Recover the amino acids of this structure.
């Protein structure tokens, strides 16, 4: 009887450890991940497109825009998003997970007109530029 109790307690302990391991792994795997665009290594060179983008942004300062109030930027851009329009739907998917906008330059006002890249490059336009939205 004593051997049976020891075997049962060993099985229970092993099962508990197994379930705990699965729960821990699920917790780690399911935790929100920071998008790759937000990480940089110390001393990393700017990307190849950066000088041209910065030059373009400086040139755009000469065009004054009418005041439109504060731009609403969401705290998080979801990993998968579907937007509908009169012609159907468009989706965007970020393989590295959701993007937290607070520390991402794409969502920062980097000029004098109160705009960020997000002002024109919207997820509902496949992160491109819509003539209708730019004209507004």
């Amino acid at each position: 009887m004593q051997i049976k109790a020891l075997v049962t307690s060993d099985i229970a302990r092993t099962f508990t450890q197994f379930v705990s391991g699965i729960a821990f792994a699920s917790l780690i795997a399911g935790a929100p991940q920071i998008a790759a665009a937000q990480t940089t290594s110390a001393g990393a060179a700017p990307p190849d497109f950066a000088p041209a983008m910065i030059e373009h942004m400086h040139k755009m300062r000469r065009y004054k825009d009418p005041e439109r109030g504060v731009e609403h930027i969401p705290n998080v851009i979801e990993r998968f998003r579907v937007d509908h329009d009169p012609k159907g739907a468009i989706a965007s998917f970020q393989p590295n997970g959701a993007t937290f906008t607070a520390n991402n330059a794409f969502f920062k006002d980097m000029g004098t007109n109160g705009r960020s890249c997000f002002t024109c490059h919207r997820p509902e336009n496949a992160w491109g530029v819509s003539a209708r939205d730019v004209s507004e």
